[in-house]
Design goal:
globular; alpha/beta; 417 residues; 12 helices; binds pyridoxal-5'-phosphate; disordered N terminus
Protein backbone atom coordinates (compact mmCIF):
# COMPACT_ATOMS: atom_id res chain seq x y z
CA UNK A 1 0.00 0.00 0.00
CA UNK A 2 2.93 2.36 0.49
CA UNK A 3 3.39 2.51 -3.30
CA UNK A 4 0.16 4.50 -3.41
CA UNK A 5 0.88 6.94 -0.66
CA UNK A 6 4.34 8.08 -1.69
CA UNK A 7 4.81 11.80 -2.28
CA UNK A 8 1.28 13.13 -2.65
CA UNK A 9 1.45 15.92 -5.23
CA UNK A 10 0.28 19.35 -4.15
CA UNK A 11 -2.83 20.99 -5.55
CA UNK A 12 -0.79 23.56 -7.40
CA UNK A 13 1.01 21.08 -9.64
CA UNK A 14 -1.47 20.04 -12.26
CA UNK A 15 -0.32 21.85 -15.38
CA UNK A 16 -1.59 19.26 -17.87
CA UNK A 17 -5.12 19.33 -16.46
CA UNK A 18 -5.11 23.14 -16.23
CA UNK A 19 -3.93 23.46 -19.84
CA UNK A 20 -6.53 21.04 -21.15
CA UNK A 21 -9.30 22.80 -19.20
CA UNK A 22 -8.27 26.16 -20.63
CA UNK A 23 -8.38 24.77 -24.19
CA UNK A 24 -11.67 22.93 -23.52
CA UNK A 25 -13.25 26.12 -22.18
CA UNK A 26 -12.82 27.69 -25.59
CA UNK A 27 -14.30 24.91 -27.73
CA UNK A 28 -16.60 22.89 -25.44
CA UNK A 29 -19.70 24.47 -23.84
CA UNK A 30 -18.98 24.99 -20.15
CA UNK A 31 -15.69 23.10 -20.51
CA UNK A 32 -17.49 19.76 -20.38
CA UNK A 33 -21.07 18.60 -20.71
CA UNK A 34 -23.07 16.57 -18.23
CA UNK A 35 -22.24 14.64 -15.10
CA UNK A 36 -18.53 14.22 -15.74
CA UNK A 37 -17.87 17.95 -15.40
CA UNK A 38 -15.18 18.15 -12.69
CA UNK A 39 -16.35 21.67 -11.79
CA UNK A 40 -19.05 19.89 -9.78
CA UNK A 41 -16.41 18.07 -7.71
CA UNK A 42 -14.30 19.32 -4.79
CA UNK A 43 -11.14 21.35 -5.33
CA UNK A 44 -8.29 19.30 -6.72
CA UNK A 45 -10.30 16.75 -8.68
CA UNK A 46 -8.88 16.30 -12.17
CA UNK A 47 -10.99 16.70 -15.29
CA UNK A 48 -8.73 14.69 -17.58
CA UNK A 49 -7.35 11.18 -17.19
CA UNK A 50 -4.39 9.61 -18.93
CA UNK A 51 -4.93 5.92 -18.28
CA UNK A 52 -6.31 3.24 -15.99
CA UNK A 53 -5.54 -0.34 -15.00
CA UNK A 54 -7.47 -2.61 -12.62
CA UNK A 55 -8.83 -0.37 -9.86
CA UNK A 56 -6.16 2.31 -10.41
CA UNK A 57 -6.55 5.49 -12.39
CA UNK A 58 -3.96 8.10 -13.45
CA UNK A 59 -4.86 11.70 -14.22
CA UNK A 60 -3.37 13.77 -17.02
CA UNK A 61 -0.68 14.97 -14.60
CA UNK A 62 0.32 11.45 -13.62
CA UNK A 63 -1.32 11.31 -10.18
CA UNK A 64 -2.45 7.80 -9.25
CA UNK A 65 -5.71 7.02 -7.44
CA UNK A 66 -7.60 4.01 -6.19
CA UNK A 67 -10.75 4.47 -8.25
CA UNK A 68 -14.09 4.34 -6.43
CA UNK A 69 -16.17 5.65 -9.34
CA UNK A 70 -15.20 3.01 -11.95
CA UNK A 71 -16.08 5.40 -14.80
CA UNK A 72 -19.40 6.03 -12.98
CA UNK A 73 -20.33 2.35 -13.20
CA UNK A 74 -19.15 0.71 -16.42
CA UNK A 75 -15.94 -0.75 -15.03
CA UNK A 76 -17.08 -3.85 -13.19
CA UNK A 77 -14.12 -6.22 -13.60
CA UNK A 78 -11.43 -3.55 -13.48
CA UNK A 79 -10.04 -1.23 -16.11
CA UNK A 80 -8.54 -2.94 -19.17
CA UNK A 81 -9.49 -6.42 -18.01
CA UNK A 82 -7.32 -8.81 -20.09
CA UNK A 83 -10.06 -11.34 -21.00
CA UNK A 84 -12.43 -8.58 -22.07
CA UNK A 85 -9.82 -6.66 -24.04
CA UNK A 86 -8.65 -9.84 -25.75
CA UNK A 87 -12.21 -10.69 -26.83
CA UNK A 88 -12.71 -7.12 -28.04
CA UNK A 89 -9.42 -7.16 -29.99
CA UNK A 90 -10.27 -10.51 -31.57
CA UNK A 91 -13.59 -9.13 -32.81
CA UNK A 92 -11.98 -5.81 -33.87
CA UNK A 93 -9.59 -7.77 -36.10
CA UNK A 94 -12.64 -9.23 -37.90
CA UNK A 95 -14.78 -6.08 -38.02
CA UNK A 96 -16.86 -3.86 -35.78
CA UNK A 97 -19.28 -1.61 -37.67
CA UNK A 98 -20.57 -3.69 -40.60
CA UNK A 99 -23.62 -3.66 -42.89
CA UNK A 100 -25.41 -5.71 -40.28
CA UNK A 101 -24.57 -7.44 -37.02
CA UNK A 102 -21.83 -10.02 -36.58
CA UNK A 103 -22.73 -13.50 -35.26
CA UNK A 104 -21.76 -12.33 -31.78
CA UNK A 105 -25.10 -10.49 -31.56
CA UNK A 106 -26.97 -13.80 -31.44
CA UNK A 107 -24.48 -15.31 -29.00
CA UNK A 108 -24.92 -12.35 -26.67
CA UNK A 109 -28.71 -12.21 -26.99
CA UNK A 110 -28.87 -15.93 -26.12
CA UNK A 111 -26.57 -15.36 -23.16
CA UNK A 112 -28.66 -12.47 -21.81
CA UNK A 113 -31.90 -14.43 -22.19
CA UNK A 114 -30.29 -17.36 -20.34
CA UNK A 115 -28.93 -15.12 -17.58
CA UNK A 116 -31.89 -12.82 -16.86
CA UNK A 117 -34.92 -14.81 -15.68
CA UNK A 118 -37.66 -12.49 -16.95
CA UNK A 119 -36.06 -12.08 -20.39
CA UNK A 120 -37.51 -13.84 -23.42
CA UNK A 121 -35.76 -11.48 -25.86
CA UNK A 122 -33.35 -8.61 -25.89
CA UNK A 123 -32.39 -5.74 -28.12
CA UNK A 124 -29.11 -3.92 -27.91
CA UNK A 125 -28.28 -0.22 -28.06
CA UNK A 126 -25.49 2.07 -26.90
CA UNK A 127 -26.43 4.13 -23.82
CA UNK A 128 -28.61 3.67 -20.79
CA UNK A 129 -30.85 6.45 -22.04
CA UNK A 130 -31.45 4.51 -25.27
CA UNK A 131 -32.52 1.53 -23.18
CA UNK A 132 -34.83 3.33 -20.73
CA UNK A 133 -36.42 5.30 -23.56
CA UNK A 134 -36.91 2.13 -25.59
CA UNK A 135 -38.55 0.45 -22.57
CA UNK A 136 -41.05 3.31 -22.29
CA UNK A 137 -41.74 3.23 -26.03
CA UNK A 138 -42.20 -0.55 -26.06
CA UNK A 139 -44.51 -0.33 -23.02
CA UNK A 140 -46.65 2.29 -24.75
CA UNK A 141 -46.68 0.32 -28.01
CA UNK A 142 -47.58 -2.88 -26.19
CA UNK A 143 -50.38 -1.42 -24.08
CA UNK A 144 -51.68 1.25 -26.47
CA UNK A 145 -51.63 3.66 -23.50
CA UNK A 146 -49.74 6.81 -22.59
CA UNK A 147 -49.17 7.34 -18.84
CA UNK A 148 -45.84 6.43 -17.27
CA UNK A 149 -45.24 6.61 -13.51
CA UNK A 150 -41.79 7.92 -12.58
CA UNK A 151 -40.33 8.25 -9.06
CA UNK A 152 -39.58 11.82 -7.96
CA UNK A 153 -35.84 12.54 -8.09
CA UNK A 154 -34.98 9.37 -10.03
CA UNK A 155 -32.53 9.58 -12.91
CA UNK A 156 -33.44 7.65 -16.05
CA UNK A 157 -31.33 9.44 -18.65
CA UNK A 158 -30.55 12.58 -20.58
CA UNK A 159 -33.33 13.17 -23.13
CA UNK A 160 -36.35 15.46 -22.73
CA UNK A 161 -38.77 12.94 -21.14
CA UNK A 162 -36.36 12.26 -18.26
CA UNK A 163 -33.58 14.86 -18.19
CA UNK A 164 -32.91 16.43 -14.77
CA UNK A 165 -32.63 19.80 -16.54
CA UNK A 166 -35.67 21.55 -17.98
CA UNK A 167 -33.56 23.61 -20.40
CA UNK A 168 -34.90 23.02 -23.88
CA UNK A 169 -37.62 20.69 -22.60
CA UNK A 170 -41.28 21.39 -23.35
CA UNK A 171 -44.26 20.55 -21.16
CA UNK A 172 -45.45 18.27 -23.94
CA UNK A 173 -42.28 16.17 -23.64
CA UNK A 174 -43.42 15.19 -20.14
CA UNK A 175 -47.16 15.45 -20.59
CA UNK A 176 -47.87 11.83 -19.72
CA UNK A 177 -45.55 11.33 -16.75
CA UNK A 178 -47.00 11.02 -13.25
CA UNK A 179 -44.73 11.22 -10.17
CA UNK A 180 -44.69 8.97 -7.14
CA UNK A 181 -42.27 8.44 -4.24
CA UNK A 182 -39.90 5.47 -4.37
CA UNK A 183 -40.53 2.87 -1.65
CA UNK A 184 -43.91 4.47 -0.85
CA UNK A 185 -46.67 2.07 -1.90
CA UNK A 186 -49.43 4.55 -0.99
CA UNK A 187 -48.00 7.24 -3.26
CA UNK A 188 -47.62 4.68 -6.04
CA UNK A 189 -51.25 3.64 -5.59
CA UNK A 190 -52.38 7.28 -5.81
CA UNK A 191 -50.37 7.73 -9.02
CA UNK A 192 -51.90 4.55 -10.47
CA UNK A 193 -55.36 5.98 -9.70
CA UNK A 194 -54.46 9.25 -11.43
CA UNK A 195 -53.37 7.38 -14.55
CA UNK A 196 -56.61 5.37 -14.63
CA UNK A 197 -57.12 3.23 -17.73
CA UNK A 198 -54.32 5.08 -19.55
CA UNK A 199 -51.52 3.50 -17.45
CA UNK A 200 -48.79 2.15 -19.75
CA UNK A 201 -45.93 1.61 -17.30
CA UNK A 202 -44.28 2.13 -13.94
CA UNK A 203 -40.54 2.69 -14.17
CA UNK A 204 -38.39 1.98 -11.11
CA UNK A 205 -34.66 2.15 -10.40
CA UNK A 206 -32.90 -0.86 -8.91
CA UNK A 207 -32.69 1.06 -5.63
CA UNK A 208 -33.20 4.68 -4.70
CA UNK A 209 -30.02 6.42 -5.79
CA UNK A 210 -31.01 10.05 -6.10
CA UNK A 211 -28.01 12.39 -6.06
CA UNK A 212 -27.00 13.88 -2.70
CA UNK A 213 -29.34 11.94 -0.42
CA UNK A 214 -28.91 8.69 1.47
CA UNK A 215 -29.40 5.66 -0.76
CA UNK A 216 -32.36 3.38 -0.08
CA UNK A 217 -32.59 -0.29 -0.96
CA UNK A 218 -35.92 -1.34 -2.43
CA UNK A 219 -38.47 -2.32 0.20
CA UNK A 220 -39.66 -5.80 -0.88
CA UNK A 221 -43.25 -4.84 0.02
CA UNK A 222 -43.00 -1.79 -2.26
CA UNK A 223 -41.54 -3.92 -5.07
CA UNK A 224 -44.38 -6.43 -4.72
CA UNK A 225 -46.92 -3.58 -4.67
CA UNK A 226 -45.46 -2.19 -7.91
CA UNK A 227 -45.67 -5.64 -9.52
CA UNK A 228 -49.27 -6.11 -8.32
CA UNK A 229 -50.33 -2.64 -9.50
CA UNK A 230 -48.94 -3.29 -12.99
CA UNK A 231 -50.58 -6.72 -13.15
CA UNK A 232 -53.94 -5.35 -12.04
CA UNK A 233 -53.79 -2.51 -14.58
CA UNK A 234 -52.29 -4.54 -17.44
CA UNK A 235 -49.33 -2.13 -17.45
CA UNK A 236 -45.61 -2.84 -17.79
CA UNK A 237 -43.25 -2.83 -14.84
CA UNK A 238 -39.97 -1.40 -16.15
CA UNK A 239 -36.79 -1.92 -14.13
CA UNK A 240 -34.15 0.69 -14.88
CA UNK A 241 -31.12 -1.44 -14.04
CA UNK A 242 -28.73 0.76 -15.99
CA UNK A 243 -26.69 1.74 -12.94
CA UNK A 244 -26.84 -1.40 -10.83
CA UNK A 245 -27.28 -4.21 -13.37
CA UNK A 246 -24.58 -6.95 -13.27
CA UNK A 247 -23.03 -5.35 -10.17
CA UNK A 248 -25.60 -6.47 -7.60
CA UNK A 249 -27.00 -9.62 -9.25
CA UNK A 250 -26.37 -11.19 -12.65
CA UNK A 251 -30.07 -11.95 -13.18
CA UNK A 252 -31.19 -8.35 -12.62
CA UNK A 253 -31.13 -6.28 -9.46
CA UNK A 254 -34.70 -6.96 -8.34
CA UNK A 255 -33.89 -10.68 -8.09
CA UNK A 256 -32.66 -9.57 -4.67
CA UNK A 257 -36.27 -8.76 -3.68
CA UNK A 258 -37.92 -11.54 -5.68
CA UNK A 259 -39.80 -9.30 -8.11
CA UNK A 260 -39.42 -9.58 -11.89
CA UNK A 261 -40.13 -6.76 -14.34
CA UNK A 262 -41.75 -6.98 -17.78
CA UNK A 263 -39.07 -4.84 -19.35
CA UNK A 264 -35.60 -3.91 -18.12
CA UNK A 265 -32.88 -1.49 -19.20
CA UNK A 266 -29.17 -2.27 -18.82
CA UNK A 267 -25.98 -0.54 -19.81
CA UNK A 268 -22.95 0.63 -17.77
CA UNK A 269 -21.40 -2.61 -16.46
CA UNK A 270 -22.60 -4.89 -19.25
CA UNK A 271 -19.37 -4.73 -21.28
CA UNK A 272 -16.80 -3.50 -18.74
CA UNK A 273 -16.42 -0.07 -20.32
CA UNK A 274 -17.33 -0.80 -23.94
CA UNK A 275 -20.34 1.15 -25.21
CA UNK A 276 -23.39 -1.09 -25.04
CA UNK A 277 -26.91 -1.09 -23.64
CA UNK A 278 -29.63 -3.73 -23.59
CA UNK A 279 -33.38 -3.91 -23.25
CA UNK A 280 -34.83 -7.21 -22.11
CA UNK A 281 -38.48 -8.15 -22.08
CA UNK A 282 -41.08 -10.83 -21.60
CA UNK A 283 -42.96 -12.58 -24.37
CA UNK A 284 -45.94 -10.30 -23.80
CA UNK A 285 -43.91 -7.36 -25.16
CA UNK A 286 -42.12 -9.18 -27.98
CA UNK A 287 -44.58 -8.02 -30.62
CA UNK A 288 -44.40 -4.39 -29.41
CA UNK A 289 -40.60 -4.56 -29.47
CA UNK A 290 -40.83 -5.80 -33.06
CA UNK A 291 -43.05 -2.88 -34.08
CA UNK A 292 -41.19 0.07 -32.52
CA UNK A 293 -38.44 1.56 -34.65
CA UNK A 294 -35.40 1.00 -32.45
CA UNK A 295 -32.07 1.61 -34.09
CA UNK A 296 -28.87 3.65 -34.23
CA UNK A 297 -25.87 3.82 -36.52
CA UNK A 298 -23.65 2.07 -33.99
CA UNK A 299 -26.13 -0.15 -32.18
CA UNK A 300 -24.96 -3.30 -33.98
CA UNK A 301 -21.24 -2.66 -33.49
CA UNK A 302 -19.71 -6.04 -32.78
CA UNK A 303 -16.72 -5.19 -30.57
CA UNK A 304 -18.75 -4.13 -27.51
CA UNK A 305 -20.87 -7.27 -27.90
CA UNK A 306 -17.77 -9.45 -27.81
CA UNK A 307 -16.62 -7.47 -24.77
CA UNK A 308 -20.02 -8.05 -23.12
CA UNK A 309 -19.87 -11.81 -23.66
CA UNK A 310 -16.43 -11.92 -22.08
CA UNK A 311 -17.56 -9.66 -19.22
CA UNK A 312 -20.57 -11.83 -18.42
CA UNK A 313 -18.50 -15.01 -18.59
CA UNK A 314 -15.95 -13.60 -16.18
CA UNK A 315 -18.58 -12.22 -13.80
CA UNK A 316 -20.15 -15.68 -13.68
CA UNK A 317 -16.81 -17.46 -13.31
CA UNK A 318 -15.65 -15.44 -10.32
CA UNK A 319 -19.10 -14.61 -8.87
CA UNK A 320 -18.48 -10.92 -9.46
CA UNK A 321 -21.36 -9.59 -7.35
CA UNK A 322 -20.15 -11.52 -4.26
CA UNK A 323 -16.61 -10.27 -4.78
CA UNK A 324 -17.73 -6.64 -5.12
CA UNK A 325 -19.99 -6.96 -2.09
CA UNK A 326 -17.03 -8.25 -0.03
CA UNK A 327 -14.78 -5.40 -1.19
CA UNK A 328 -17.52 -2.88 -0.37
CA UNK A 329 -18.02 -4.41 3.06
CA UNK A 330 -14.30 -4.10 3.80
CA UNK A 331 -14.40 -0.43 2.74
CA UNK A 332 -17.55 0.20 4.80
CA UNK A 333 -16.13 -1.41 7.95
CA UNK A 334 -12.88 0.52 7.56
CA UNK A 335 -14.62 3.86 7.09
CA UNK A 336 -16.83 3.24 10.13
CA UNK A 337 -13.79 2.35 12.25
CA UNK A 338 -11.82 5.42 11.14
CA UNK A 339 -14.72 7.85 11.52
CA UNK A 340 -15.30 6.61 15.07
CA UNK A 341 -11.61 6.97 15.87
CA UNK A 342 -11.78 10.62 14.76
CA UNK A 343 -15.00 11.19 16.74
CA UNK A 344 -17.02 11.84 13.56
CA UNK A 345 -20.58 10.72 12.86
CA UNK A 346 -21.14 9.33 9.38
CA UNK A 347 -23.91 7.42 7.64
CA UNK A 348 -23.18 4.79 5.03
CA UNK A 349 -26.00 3.78 2.73
CA UNK A 350 -26.68 1.70 -0.35
CA UNK A 351 -25.52 -1.77 -1.30
CA UNK A 352 -21.87 -2.33 -0.28
CA UNK A 353 -20.83 -2.54 -3.96
CA UNK A 354 -22.40 0.88 -4.64
CA UNK A 355 -21.95 2.83 -1.42
CA UNK A 356 -22.40 6.44 -0.32
CA UNK A 357 -20.79 7.91 2.79
CA UNK A 358 -22.14 11.14 4.27
CA UNK A 359 -21.35 13.16 7.36
CA UNK A 360 -24.03 14.00 9.93
CA UNK A 361 -25.27 17.60 9.88
CA UNK A 362 -23.62 18.36 6.58
CA UNK A 363 -26.45 19.65 4.36
CA UNK A 364 -24.15 21.65 2.07
CA UNK A 365 -21.68 18.71 1.88
CA UNK A 366 -18.90 20.97 3.16
CA UNK A 367 -17.50 18.15 5.31
CA UNK A 368 -17.96 15.58 2.55
CA UNK A 369 -16.04 17.77 0.14
CA UNK A 370 -13.22 18.40 2.64
CA UNK A 371 -12.97 14.64 3.23
CA UNK A 372 -12.85 13.82 -0.47
CA UNK A 373 -10.38 16.59 -1.33
CA UNK A 374 -7.94 15.42 1.36
CA UNK A 375 -8.37 11.73 0.50
CA UNK A 376 -7.79 12.54 -3.17
CA UNK A 377 -4.47 14.18 -2.36
CA UNK A 378 -3.47 10.91 -0.74
CA UNK A 379 -4.55 8.71 -3.60
CA UNK A 380 -8.23 7.74 -3.17
CA UNK A 381 -10.83 8.93 -5.66
CA UNK A 382 -14.10 9.05 -3.67
CA UNK A 383 -17.30 10.98 -4.42
CA UNK A 384 -19.08 13.12 -1.81
CA UNK A 385 -22.63 13.04 -3.25
CA UNK A 386 -23.09 10.25 -5.77
CA UNK A 387 -23.06 6.55 -5.01
CA UNK A 388 -19.64 5.09 -5.63
CA UNK A 389 -18.78 1.83 -7.41
CA UNK A 390 -16.60 -1.09 -6.38
CA UNK A 391 -15.18 -3.45 -8.99
CA UNK A 392 -13.88 -7.01 -8.93
CA UNK A 393 -10.37 -5.53 -9.19
CA UNK A 394 -10.54 -3.93 -5.74
CA UNK A 395 -8.41 -6.25 -3.64
CA UNK A 396 -7.85 -6.03 0.11
CA UNK A 397 -4.58 -4.12 -0.32
CA UNK A 398 -6.29 -1.54 -2.55
CA UNK A 399 -9.08 -1.01 -0.05
CA UNK A 400 -6.57 -0.73 2.78
CA UNK A 401 -4.52 1.81 0.83
CA UNK A 402 -7.67 3.85 0.20
CA UNK A 403 -8.49 3.64 3.91
CA UNK A 404 -5.12 5.21 4.70
CA UNK A 405 -6.12 8.09 2.42
CA UNK A 406 -9.54 8.19 4.08
CA UNK A 407 -7.83 8.50 7.45
CA UNK A 408 -6.25 11.75 6.23
CA UNK A 409 -9.68 12.81 4.93
CA UNK A 410 -11.26 12.26 8.36
CA UNK A 411 -8.40 14.16 9.98
CA UNK A 412 -9.15 17.13 7.68
CA UNK A 413 -12.83 17.01 8.64
CA UNK A 414 -12.07 16.72 12.35
CA UNK A 415 -10.14 19.99 12.08
CA UNK A 416 -13.15 21.92 10.74
CA UNK A 417 -16.15 20.54 12.66
C1 LIG B 1 -30.38 4.59 -13.35
C2 LIG B 1 -29.89 5.19 -14.64
N1 LIG B 1 -30.68 5.15 -15.71
C3 LIG B 1 -30.30 5.66 -16.89
C4 LIG B 1 -29.06 6.25 -17.04
C5 LIG B 1 -28.66 6.81 -18.36
O1 LIG B 1 -27.59 6.09 -18.88
P1 LIG B 1 -26.61 6.73 -19.96
O2 LIG B 1 -25.86 7.82 -19.27
O3 LIG B 1 -25.74 5.61 -20.39
O4 LIG B 1 -27.47 7.24 -21.07
C6 LIG B 1 -28.20 6.30 -15.94
C7 LIG B 1 -26.89 6.92 -16.05
O5 LIG B 1 -26.24 7.24 -15.08
C8 LIG B 1 -28.63 5.75 -14.70
O6 LIG B 1 -27.84 5.78 -13.62
Amino acid sequence: MSQLLSAPPSLGTRPADAGLRARAGRVIPGGLWGHLDAAKLPEGYPQFFARAEGCRLWDADGREFVDFMCSWGPIVLGHRHPAVEEAASRQAALGDCLNGPAPVLVDLAERLVETIPHAAWCLLAKNGTDATTACVTVARAGTGRRKVLVARGAYHGAVPWCSPSVAGVTEEDRAHLIPFDYNDAASLEAAVDRAGPDLAAVIVSAFRHDMGVALELPDPAFARAARAACDAAGAALILDDVRAGFRLHLGGSWETVGVRPDLAAYSKAIANGHALAAVTGTDRFRDAATRVFATGSFWCAAVPMAAALATLAELHRIDGPARMRAAGERLRAGLARLAARHGLVITQSGPPAMPLMQFAEDPAVRLGEAFCAAALRHGAYFHPRHNMFLSCAHGDADIDAALQAADVGFEAVARIV
